[in-house]
Amino acid sequence: MSTSAIEPGTRLSDRFRLEDRVSESDGATYWKAIDEILARPVAVLTFAPDFPRVQEVVTAARAASRLTDPRLTQVFDAAQDDDRAYVVSEWVTGDTLADLLSSGPLDPERAAGLVAEAAEALAHAHEAGLYHLCLRPGNLVWTTGNTVKVLGVAVDSALYGLTTDQPGLDDAEGLGRLLYAGLTGHWPGDEEEGTLPAAPMTDGHFCTPRQVTAGVPGYLDTVTIRACLPESRRGQGALSSPAEIAEALADVARPMPISIPYGSAPSVTTSASPSEGLDTDRRRLTAPQHLQPAVQTGPQGGGNVLNRALMTAVVLLVIVAVGVGAWTIGRSLGSPDGQEAQPTPTTATTSPPAQAQAVKAEKATGFDPLGDQEEKAELAALTIDGKPSTFWKTDNYNSAALGNLKDGVGLLLDMGKSMQISDVVATLGEAPGATVELKVGDQADLSSLKTVARVKGASGKTTFKPEQTASGQYVLIWFTRLPADAGKFHGTIYEVVVHSPGSA
User: Fold this and answer.
1) pTM
2) In which residue ranges is the amino acid composition biased (Low complexity) (predicted)?
3) Treating both helix axes as pointing N-terminal to C-terminal, what angle do 108-127 and 167-184 enclose, rounded to 10 degrees?
């Protein structure tokens, strides 16, 4: 079969079944496929008969397959013969940097954390003599598994025929552009990059991140300048490799993996979303995550086991009912006055308590009544947006006791009306050591909010359950001790869910 005749349903190497044509450009086609042996989705790259760089791409893919850093796309297979050539790699699902920037710039430290992970991964690739050379927002993905993934190392440069005498410098500049994009929502290039507008310019030079977006820390502005804005360096040395970028960002907080349970399983998705993997702007989108079917536990399946258990329970109930009936009849027949036995009075069945329901807060605010009144207020709404990858965090302090500057700082939720609080589930950062209190009240005033629960050593998913009935319009998650993270002390909250049995 020739490559030009490849269509959906084609099987490669008697194993990889092509399903959906994701993107196509300049004689190369990306597919979503199924590995029939391991029953998992994979990405497959095929080539037209006249594609000029097949050998280079296959050779690069084979070299990339030896990379072991989990933040780099894993290559499973690469083959070339007289009839066809193809490359098989992992199917990555999640949000590209371009997707994350669709609503504006990221929180500065979150942008830096994503790029720091990418820089470390590329530093490992460089140690193996492999480079990227065409980093774009579509190559950096925050996966559905809450990890960073860099797409296209070695393969993309071969695909587009890119070469350089300074691969370290080129990839460092690429990382700097990704950081610039994350901090500003603009692309520091000669033209727009996909949906990102071109970076503004002054006096013929790109503006620095701090000139474009308020609130960018000075050290991140400096790292970006040293990486990709030579006109603004003013004597500062260039960062000339991914390893140097990684070192410059070594102290930033990294994105934290989060596990969010679902009340019920989402519907199974069977089709891939469109991808731009080989468009001229070289961006690559990822497809929706697929759910695995429930695993059966035996040749007859788990359903039959359940049926047998239910049948056994029914039989036992019948036996008990017959026994009770016989005992009642015996009492009636044995009554000395021959009167019918009177039925036993029954007590009224009490209704089960109302099941607690999740209630969405109307507003979230960074709460710092003992300081400047607000604590990263612009990020507070990210804790109630339903997205596990976004977060609010406190300012950085120089000790766990908030630098002895104040007794606490926190996140205040306005529920819109007074209601009874069953519990509050907060997904905190993974760094251990936080002491966190739950306060509830009807006024957004620290003295009016009553402490109803306290957790020491809190981290990850934490449930605050009041020991006694608690009601109020305002719910405060109050840090009195901060965990250490990368040499700094700050509290982090990814998501908050408030449960209530009803209004107070």
Assistant:
1) 0.55
2) 339-356
3) 160
